[in-house]
Amino acid sequence: MGNYDFTGRAKRWTKFFVHYLNERVRGLDFSMVYVGDLQKNTEEYHGYSMTDATDMKRILQAVPVDPRKSAFLDVGCGKGMCMKVAAKLGYSKTDGLDLDAHLLEIARRNMKKLRLDVNCIQANAIEFDGYANYDVFYCYNPFGKSVFEKVIKKLIESQQERNRDIGAIYYHPVFAKLFQQAGFVLEKEIHDHTRDTVARYYRYPKQE
Ligand SMILES: C[S@@+](CC[C@H](N)C(=O)[O-])C[C@H]1O[C@@H](n2cnc3c(N)ncnc32)[C@H](O)[C@@H]1O
């Protein structure tokens, strides 16, 4: 078990290092350590950490969504790794929002280097009023319970502006109960046993 842990860790660090060098060479920055004013984790604000690109691709390929007919929003997009993967998988529109202006600057630079047509929006997820423009929302543990409750409420309210199925992909789903309590239906759970990660796909059905 100890050996297995060591091997697993060594593999992850090697992978991180290869990614890091690859980013440096291409003038990108998704995985470098970021310490901004907002980056101290608090109960309601969770700082930047990145979804692994391979994990993200596997998750997006596993969810029952046709990307060509769906607009994707990363709620708490950080430096933009998930937007990059979603845009490359052919989502009809791919955007992200974040509270942290500095992270968004980095995200914009990344998207420009990669020539991806993606909007990086500076907004607090609680106050954002554009949810009706999107069909699939991605959350990687961006905030605590009370913020999550408000954001989920806003997602549901956005159906009044545009009635459609609302999909929510929740990675590292610590507050999964909140989606279920609000009436979202769990449609799929995606596990990666090598990395020990879980993502859940919830759907809030279109109103008849
Ligand atoms: C764990 S990181 C995830 C980054 C990215 N989605 C990824 O998976 O690579 C969470 C992000 O949520 C952002 N965030 C936290 N609270 C927020 C809020 N109230 N509104 C918008 N963004 C927020 C943080 O700045 C951080 O970049």
Describe the 3D structure.
With 208 residues, the protein is an alpha/beta fold. The chain has 2 domains: 1-32; 37-204, Rossmann fold (3-Layer(aba) Sandwich), CATH 3.40.50. 38% of the residues lie in helices and 20% in strands. It contains 6 helices and 7 strands; from the N terminus they run ααβαβαββαβαββ. It has helices at 2-26, 53-62, 81-88, 101-113, 145-161, 176-181, and strands at 71-75, 93-98, 119-122, 136-140, 166-171, 185-192, 197-204. The chain has a 7-stranded mixed sheet, with helices on both faces. Helix 2 (53-62) crosses helix 3 (81-88). It is globular, with a radius of gyration of 17 Å. Bound molecules: S-adenosylmethionine (SAM). S-adenosylmethionine binds at residues 38, 45-51, 74, 76-78, 81-82, 97-100, 103, 124-126, 140-143, 147. Residues 38, 45-51, 74, 76-78, 81-82, 97-100, 103, 124-126, 140-143, 147 line the site of S-adenosylmethionine.
